[in-house]
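Entry for the shared binder. Reason: the reviewer on the internal report wants the predicted structure included alongside the sequence.
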Amino acid sequence: MPLAVYILGLSVFALGTSEFMLSGLLPPIADDMDVSIPRAGLLISAFAVGMVVGAPLLAVATLRLPRKTTLIALISVFGVGQVAGALATSYEVLFVSRVVSALACAGFWAVGAAVAIAMVPVTRARAMAVMIGGLSIANVLGVPVGAFLGEHLGWRSAFWAVGGASAVALVGVVTLIPRIPLPERRPRLRGELAIYRDRQVWLSIVVTALAAGGVFCAFSYLAPLLTDVAGLADGWVPTVLALFGVGALIGTTIGGRVADAHLFGVLLSGITASTVLLAALALFASSPAAVIVLSLLLGVSAFYTAPALNARMFNVAGAAPTLAGATTTAAFNLGNTGGPWLGGTVIDADLGYAATAWAGGAMTLVAIGFVAVSLRLHSRSRVVATGGPATRTVRAERAQRAGPAGVTRAR
């Protein structure tokens, strides 16, 4: 695996810390900005919306620009967004800073994924696992440290820390990412957009959005669930978030090694496990020990499927790698937008924090159904492509309808 892929993973560490650290910072942000926790939770959705819009938009806008230059510009804008968030004097300013940061984050993910796939074209899931590994380490280290800083030095210190990590990532990109030459035939937007004619692409989008949204419907409100429902002290929040991150790192490692050979098996088993774990979290939310263990296991199941979800999109949309990466990023963040929104709606309806896990489980259950549909279409297309039984049946029917002279009989 080229060193440059690991540099991309390091950059994703900074991006991922910013994306997920608000899960441990919602109470102090809500108090400081004088808003409710569900409204503070919309900051998570704001970041996700920026990712949804920014990924395809910036992928298209930078399609003909040098890859390395694009990565440098995007990580720089992201760092500026973190500084703006740290200095925000109102909820509205903080909201805008999150959207700007998300746009840059989305573009970096899309271009970075295409660069990683270009450098490692065969073992795609493993290359993506390295990048997603940066996200996992962000959950292991960055998010808990952010929660710790928020508790002891104020939530703004977490934003300053991510800004510093972004500066380190910028140095790594400038010095260690090679210049990726553009293809001799410049990409054409019409050709790239042609991937959206494939229903498997749309199935991949739906599965990714539902799988991610289901987990983050509950994860986004994990801090108040731990303190208000399970009865744990505030000091436990960083520890449990770190356990989720440890599970994420374990899941990414296993999923990245298995997904290239058993992609649909990973999708079905991982999303099913998430569904069961979310149901268990809802049922045993008042048990501190159960919530701690389930948080670890949920991290494993959620990130076990992530390399397969990424690799599946590149498999069905390989003719447009940059837009494929952007589409995957957008799909994940459709889930990261819808999940926290649904969770906030459940809380506002006075159903309690534990009910967010029921809502998330419903999303992942639907995702399983769409994976089954995608698998059926995939199997059918393979049979036709190899001249299997389905093809032979079609040929036999055509021969039966044809007369002695080979003229098709009228029905």
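Summary line for the report: The chain has 17 helices and no strands.
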